[in-house]
Structure formats: C-alpha cells, structure tokens
Amino acid sequence: MSTAESSLPRPSALATARSLLSTLRQSLVAAIRGVAFWATIPLPLVIAGTLVTGTAASAPLLVVGLLLLNVVCAVVGQRHSTGN
Prior knowledge:
This protein is mostly helical. 77% of the residues lie in helices and 0% in strands. The chain has five helices and no strands. It is rod-shaped and about 75 Å long. It comes from Haloarcula nitratireducens.
C-alpha cells in the first residue's frame, strides 16, 4: 500500500538546513550592502560638519576614520540593488 505522497522525494534535514543557511547568508549580505550604500550618502555631510565646526582640527583622526569609513561603505555598498 503505497500512497502518492510517500513516493515523492523528501529533502533531507541537511539539505533543508543548507538551504536555510544559504538564504540567511544572502539576506545578511544584502542587508549589509544596503546599509553600506545608504551610509555612503550622509557621511560626506558628517565629514563636512566636522570641518565647519572645527572638530577636524582637534580630532584629525576622527576625520580620517570617517573618510575611510566612507570609502569602505562605498566599496561594500556599490553592488546594492533595490530589487526592482
């Protein structure tokens, strides 16, 4: 006595876990790219604010760090797509 349902192949627990992890990884990468992309937009304004307020003179490493962060965000976020 065989049923139609039992004759269908069932994915193993390992295959299901791999699929879930792959989907989770893709979602995490997309989220990181999105945050990096959108962070690239206001960072130059923050950097300009440090120059205007004189913070750059008292904390030059902060400005250098912000510039490096902007470059890293631009590189990481360049492949971001809105999914359209």
